[in-house]
Amino acid sequence: MKRLVLILMMLATPMFAVQPDEVLDDPVLEQRARDLSTGLRCLVCRNESIDESNADLARDLRLLLRERLVAGDTDEQAIAFIVDRYGEYVLLKPTTSGSNVFLWLAGPIMLLIAAGVGLNFLRNRARAHASVETKGLSAAEKERLRQILED
Amino acid sequence: MITELGHFALILAFFVAIVQSVVPLIGAAKNWTGWMAFAEPAAIVQFLLTAFSFGALMWAFIASDFSLRIVVENSHSAKPMLYKISGTWGNHEGSMLLWVLIVTLFGAMAAFFGGGLPPSLKARVLSVQSAIGVAFFAFILFTSNPFDRLAIAPFDGRDLNPLLQDPGLAFHPPFLYLGYVGLSMAFSFAIAALIEGRIDAAWGRWVRPWTLAAWVFLTIGIALGSWWAYYELGWGGFWFWDPVENASFMPWLLAAALLHSAIVVEKREALKSWTILLAIIAFGFSLIGTFIVRSGLLTSVHAFANDPERGVFILFILVIFIGGALTLFAARAQAMEAKGVFGMVSRESALIVNNVLLAVSCFVVFVGTMWPMVAEMMFDRKLSVGAPFFNAAFSPFMVVLGLVLPIGAMLPWKRGRIGKTVWSLRYAFGLALAVSLLVWAMQTGRSALGPVGLFLGAWIAFGAVVDIWSRTGRNGSLKRLFRLPGADWGKAVAHTGLGVTIFAIAGLTAWEAEDIRVAQPNQPFDVGQFTLTLQDVRQVEGPNYFSTTADVLIAKNGQPIGTLHPEKRDYPVARMPTTEAAIDYRFLGDLYVVIGDQQADGGWVMRTYIKPLANWIWAGCILMALGGVLSLCDRRFRVAAGARKTPVGGVPAE
Questions:
Q1: CB contact under 8 A, A38 and B388
Q2: What pLDDT shows up at residue B298?
Q3: A109 and A84 share one domain
Q4: Which of B10, B35, B285, B354 could form a disulfide with B250 if both were Cys (CB 3.0 to 4.6 A apart)?
């Protein structure tokens, strides 16, 4: 039984994200690799970048990325190389091309609309005659007020 | 037998809920006192029945009754008691039962504390709340019955996901649900007010404590979840912009907006229709959150049970409640005329800016969360929207919010002058700038993120201090400070908390340091100002796991300051390894050590992180929650309960 458990443990030993043997000797290049890999998605994981993930595939991608950087690719070239092979699904930060314009502009446009509506409302409030505030009470409210005053 | 009783109690509660969602509503429409009064005992009975049912399920988990399907799937006899109990809600069926338990709990509390509410409003609120209960009782009974028995009971269970076997996570779902479902109370009040056709300052005062409570619970729930992620996932991340996290964050943002706009309703009788709309949408986002988690529509870290059929059911609930509410809103909104008059520069307008920023930032999170699905369905593009998008698209809103917050918080009601308010904040501004310049001078050649974020955080926190100080009056009498209403203290404390959290997130993101290496036993190495020595690695047996535990000696300036024990655990039943990071919690920054695999040369992979200001993130959250609690304790909420005791229409003479 104990041996079985040990074998199971060996099989299930967690792999970690970036391993010491992956780290490049050139610290500048390594830093670039780290920065780029936080923006790439591990394809078999749920919402994890390859920098955080411990999946084998993420390790392969990390090694591939470093290979490209060592080969002299710029950041853009290295990313393009990976996107060509794995599709835009690997990009955690979606591009601004095509329909993604909606995604990126949704916030600013909504802000403009909301600010417009808010400003319009404020203008109305500022202009509204103070008479609104002192329009007087309804009959029922007057009755209630009279009750309170008498109490 | 207890299981069957639990199941039966749940069915009874379902029927009580159906009756309660109809009878008081008719009573309120016809002005029949008896029918209206039915709501109160019904709400309490409904809660007691559901509580009994939940207790029965919990008993099955405690006693390890493996004839129940969900106990087999989520428990194990060797599991520690705490996790047997928390296993009750660590699965789909149980968590839905917890959800509906909280719906009935809030209903019962409204019945219990709602003495000051006009009877018709109270009847309608309890009716709507009960209708929400009906939907979820039906969901549980028809699609996800927790009391499902197995024909042949196995000897032992399959254990709970080991990642969930953690004290932080044991209490994360209950708090989160208290928050989600707390918003149902604001929703019920909104619908009741729409049916009633009357929204005034008193309504704002009644709805605010519920929203405030929901927001406090959400804050605690989210903070617990993020703290758990920080120490459990093995690399110290605290926020991932995961769909499920977003699902809890969106209601939080909207609840924050709602409790600010309710202030305007309460004090100035303006923004009424917006506040109603916000209450509807906030609960809508709670439902959307449940839908996202339960349907598995968006894959995420903790979709522990998902099933298209259940997703469709929740989608129906969402469409019926939110669709119905919005229709009602459209029909009745014109009736709510704003009363208060105020200038362009005033507290009211500042609160509108707050609402615009919170609502739009919530919208950004929503679009980002749903975009992968929309893009796939409509544009046939399979893409991801991850943390880098949210950091870029969401953060600017928080920066603007942070900049205007201290000014807006101090503007007078009705009409103010920006210059005067800004001048009174000059010391806060100077101090924040000094903090920011100091760290800018100390760091060498790094990004501007740290100093800017620290400025923002300090500006909000110091601004809150100036705000509360200004309440001492001209001669600064401290005595007056103690006599301030709870709401004023709550405001200052919660704003300070937000400042502290922003401060910490900026510091952590900007100055985190990391070291990855193969550590040889007894060979010291330096990380930052610390010296670490891997002394020993042992095999240890836990109650339901095996652990590889390392002893790491930590020294600072040559002086040993302690030993850390990072672990790698393996849960044989669940067949899952976990990492247990060892963290030396320090005031200015944590030392975070993780042990990895043994290498061929006998060394061990070790990762060491220095996490500046990490604790402050959660300290800020605690302050925010505390601010909410202080505000809840405000005497005015209790006194206000008596306002409008006799409804204006008059009670029929008995």
A1: yes
A2: 58
A3: no
A4: B285
Is position A112 within any domain?
A: yes
Residue among B134, B133, B136, B7 at smallest CA distance from B59: B7
A125 plus A60 within the same structural domain: no
What is residue B558's predicted lDDT score, i.e. its pLDDT?
84
Residues A49 and A69 in one domain: yes
Question: Do B364 and A52 lie within an 8 Å CB cutoff?
Answer: no
Q: How many residues would you count in chain B?
A: 654
Inform me whether the C-beta atom of residue A141 falls under 8 Å from chain B C-beta atoms: yes
Number of domains in chain A: 2
Distance CA B262, CA B106 (A): 19
pLDDT at residue B224 in the model:
92
In a shared domain, residues A23 and A67:
yes
Yes or no: say if B35 and B27 are a contact pair by the CB < 8 Å rule. Answer: yes
Give B56-92 as a DSSP string. HHHHHHHTT-TTBHHHHHH--TTS-HHHHHHTTSSSH
Last residue of one domain, picked from the residues A90, A116, A136: A90
B335 touching A (Cβ < 8 Å): no
pLDDT at A149 over 50: yes
For the segment B317-330, the average pLDDT, to the nearest whole number, is 90
Q: Do A43 and A106 sit in the same domain of this protein?
A: no
CA distance B291 to B318: 8
Minimal Cα–Cα distance from B498 to chain A, Å? 22
As given in the structure block, the two tokens for residue B626 are 């505390």
Is the ipTM reported for this complex over the cut 0.95?
no
Contacts of A12 in chain B (CB under 8 A): 570, 575-577
Question: A54: nearest CA in chain B?
Answer: B234
Tokens 């520690």 label which residue?
B80
B562 backbone dihedrals φ, ψ, rounded to 5°: 155, 175
- Among A38, A62, A90, the domain-final residue is A90
DSSP states along A25-52: SSHHHHHHHHHHHTTBB-TTSSS-BTTT
Distance CA B327, CA B319 (A): 11
Q: At what angle do helices B387-410 and B449-470 cross, to 10 degrees?
A: 30
- Which residue of B360, B369, B548, B593 is the best one to mutate when testing the A interface, meaning the one whose CB has the most A CBs within 10 A? B360
Structure confidence at residue B573 as a pLDDT band (50, 70, 90) = confident
Residue A103 at interface with chain B, using a CB cutoff of 8 Å: yes
Whether residue A79 is found in the same domain as residue A8: yes
Q: What is the reported pTM?
A: 0.89
Minimal C-alpha gap between A35 and chain B (Å): 11
The verdict on residue A95 lying in a domain is no
CATH number, position A32: 1.10.8.640
pLDDT of residue B372: 86
The first and second tokens of residue B342, run together, are 């105020």
Domain membership of residue A61 (yes or no) is yes
Of B340, B517, B570, the CB nearest to A133: B340
A84 lies in the same domain as A123: no
Same domain for A109 and A70? no
* Rounded Cα distance, B555 and B562, in Å: 7
Name which residue leads in pLDDT, B11 or B653: B11
Q: Any idea where the domains of chain B sit in the sequence?
A: 1-165, 513-614
* Beta bridge pairs of residue B519: B604
Is residue B141 pLDDT above 50, yes or no?
yes
Interface check for B596 against chain A (CB to CB < 8 A): the answer is: yes
Q: Residue B281 corresponds to which tokens in the numbers above?
A: 């949408």
